[in-house]
Design a protein that fits this description.
Elements (H helix, E strand, L loop, with lengths): L10 E4 L26 H14 L3 E6 L6 E5 L2 H10 L2 E4 L4 H14 L5 E6 L4 E6 L5 H13 L4 E5 L14 E3 L2 E3 L3 E5 L2 E6 L1 H4 L4 E3 L6 E9 L5 E6 L8 E3 L5 E3 L2 E2 L7 E6 L3 E16 L2 E9 L11 E4 L2 E8 L3 E2 L2 E2 L1 E5 H8 L2 E2 L1
Parallel strand pairs: 1-19, 3-4, 6-7, 17-22
Antiparallel strand pairs: 1-5, 2-3, 5-6, 8-9, 10-11, 10-26, 11-14, 12-13, 13-14, 15-16, 18-19, 18-21, 19-20, 20-25, 21-22, 22-25, 23-24
């Protein structure tokens, strides 16, 4: 069963197993080509308020890269009135959340093909379908036949590379013979922890800062599949700063956390590909792994690779997500999926600092 499947935005990725990745989403709306923007704190708050107040009455929200304003897509006069009252810029669209969700349900039921992904992009008001190089001509024809029946609600794009399982090196934490990245340092009641990917913390209870080094932290929670987050408590007496490595000799102070907004700029920090940048293209992402589904993820265009798992996705001083996986990079364009960090913080009762 899919969780939170209403069409604020959603993607289903069908991979073999393990950590994931996918190519960049299609862009057909004029504003998707513009440089992305970092939301003001008020935009994050407005996005949360719109979601609470409108629910399924919106077909999705996104950040206008030209103006930096939050845009709410609606199909009714009543929804438009409520969105404007909340202070959002409003755009009328042809397809409702229910129509887009129904198209995704049809794809889920009739075109569940390994190597494909689909998601609702509110900027185009369509379901954007991607198929990687592993999808055969026969399966591609099947996918196209299903999409054709759904009319203009669906567009299909081929993407290079293949979605792969990648639990390799990547960061500053080592456990169970694997290497992952820490995302953010967090605190609760004076104790210090870090959060990372759940498919990493599933591997080992004890974590070190170097391969074969002394233990610096012990796992206190892990959630994968369904989610992809875990938490490790520092046990070596350290009280690390609440910053993210920028891999240029400096770091970024993290002071708050929020949910990513489609269209906004983000940065990803992980020791495999270091610091990379991208744009958020979808939220409420559903991933169907070979070892179980993961829900409510976020898709971006940041470059990433195996080993960045567990790393930090952020914008300015705002923590956004925990890196879950990637299909790699093509030149400077890539793909990266993150677990919203707010869900992990809430699950463990911790805060960034």
């Amino acid at each position: 069963m899919r969780r939170n499947s209403r069409a604020r935005l959603g993607v289903s990725l069908l991979l073999v197993a393990g950590a994931l990745g996918l190519g960049a989403a299609p862009s057909t709306a004029a504003d998707t080509a513009a440089p992305s923007a970092i939301p003001a704190p008020s935009a994050y708050a407005l996005d949360a308020e719109v979601e609470r107040s409108l629910g399924a009455a919106t077909a999705g929200t996104y950040l206008d890269a030209k103006t930096g304003k939050l845009v709410v897509t609606v199909t009714t006069d009543r929804a438009e009135e409520r969105a404007r009252a909340a202070g959002a810029t409003v755009r009328r669209v042809a397809r409702s959340a229910a129509q887009l969700d129904a198209a995704m349900e049809t794809l889920e039921a009739e075109a569940k093909i390994t190597g494909t992904s689909w998601g609702i992009d509110p900027r185009t008001n369509r379901v954007a379908v991607e198929a990687d190089s592993s999808v055969s001509a026969r399966d591609m024809a099947r996918l196209e036949a299903v999409a054709e029946r759904l009319g203009g609600a669906v567009e299909i794009k081929r993407v290079p590379g293949e979605f792969r399982r990648e639990v390799l090196g990547g960061g500053a934490i080592y456990g169970g013979g694997s290497r992952c990245s820490a995302a953010f340092n967090v605190t609760k009641g004076g104790a210090r922890y870090f959060v990372t990917a759940g498919h990493c913390t599933n591997i080992s209870a004890n974590w070190s800062a170097s391969s074969g080094g002394s233990v610096i932290g012990v796992r206190e929670g892990s959630s994968f599949p369904t989610n992809d987050y875990g938490i490790v408590r520092y046990t070596n007496g350290s009280s690390p700063a609440g910053t993210v490595d920028l891999y240029n000799g400096s770091s970024r102070d993290i002071t708050s956390a929020a949910n990513a907004v489609v269209g906004q700029a983000i940065q990803k920090s992980g020791s495999t590909t270091k610091l990379t940048s991208g744009t958020v293209t979808a939220v409420n992402v559903t991933v169907n792994y070979g070892d179980g589904p993961v829900y409510n993820m976020v898709r971006t265009t940041a470059c990433s690779a195996g080993g960045d798992s567990g790393g930090a996705h952020f914008a300015g001083s705002v923590a956004l997500g925990i890196h879950s996986g990637s299909s790699g990079c093509s030149g400077t364009a890539g793909s990266a999926i993150h677990q919203p960090v707010t869900e992990a913080l809430s699950a463990y009762g911790v805060t960034v600092y």
